[in-house]
């Protein structure tokens, strides 16, 4: 019985890929992200893993480019059917996310950093900064891993002066 439990535990542990988001800062604490399989970087429930908005918001200007930085904390590349990474944004977590960036997954090692240059949405002239949610997602297309991993960060989009 104990050997079955150990095999089950190891199987679950092996298939827990991770996605960490560094910029903007992810909602969960960033601890142990320099080692593969970090507990700080596993969120399986979309759109934001059940996390709540934080006071730590990146301030960006609407209509300008900014860089999103995220990490493949654990590699789950599927050569037969590669997955992908995406960056999306929404006005609120319950609203529809608009995809801003997508790249096909490759067999790069765990802890690889990705950067995505995206354009912030325009904000109406004269309006207050608009709180928005930026989501990164790792869709594995790997039957031996969970289907997707999520991270969200909070941003304030300001109007252009």
Describe the structure in your own words.
The chain is mainly beta. The chain has 1 helix and 8 strands. The chain has one helix at 2-14, and strands at residues 19-23, 57-61, 65-72, 84-90, 98-104, 112-119, 130-139, 148-158. The strands form 2 sheets. A 5-stranded mixed sheet has the order 2-8-7-4-5, with no helix packed on it. Strands 1-3-6 form a 3-stranded antiparallel sheet, with no helix packed on it. A hairpin with an 8-residue loop joins β7 (130-139) and β8 (148-158). The radius of gyration is 17 Å and the shape is globular. It starts with a helix and ends with a strand.
- β content, as a range? 35-45%
- Decide which structural class fits the backbone: mainly beta
Number of strands: 8
Number of helices: 1
Major sheet characteristics:
5 strands, mixed
Shape: globular
Uncertain segments: 1-17
Average the pLDDT over all residues and give the rounded result: 87
> In angstroms, what is the radius of gyration?
17 Å
Q: State the share of residues found in helices, binned by percent.
A: under 10%
Biggest sheet strand order reads 2-8-7-4-5
